[in-house]
Amino acid sequence: QVRVSESGGGLVQPGGSLRLSCAASGSLLHIHSVAWYRQVPGSQRELVARDLPDGSTEYSVSVQGRFTISRDNYNDMIYLQMNSLKPEDTAVYYCNVAGDSGYWGKGTQVTVSS
User: Taking Cα atoms as reference points, which of 99, 79, 100, 71 lies closest to residue 7?
Assistant: First the structure.
């Protein structure tokens, strides 16, 4: 059974950094795409970053150049390094393995505020 769990969220000032972690146990991570999504109340969940098994990545325009997705297939971990954070990055961040019909964590709150 695949279990996905995020950690690393919190409160940070504008311009600061956070690193989100996602443990994806039992996932055979190396064969799946992995992604980070985020959602604010009243809005749809949006894709932040995706990493494909071939090593290619894609980012939303709003985070391009500030966020970096990475994975550690050996340890079944996925990361999201977030730099130069803005108040509009405030959201619940979700980790996803194997696409929309795959596996999801429960999310971790990121709040960017002074």
Answer: 79
Strands 57-59 and 67-72: unpaired
- Report phi then psi at 23, rounded to 5: -95, 125
> Which residues are bridge partners to 93 per DSSP?
38, 108
Cα–Cα distances in angstroms (integers) from residue 82 to residues 10, 68, 79, 99, in the given order: 12, 7, 10, 22
- Buried b / exposed e over 63-77, threshold 16 CB at 10 Å, is beeebbbebebeebb
Q: pLDDT tens, 40-73? A: 999 999 999 999 999 899 999 999 999 999 999 9
Tell me what pLDDT residue 30 has: 83
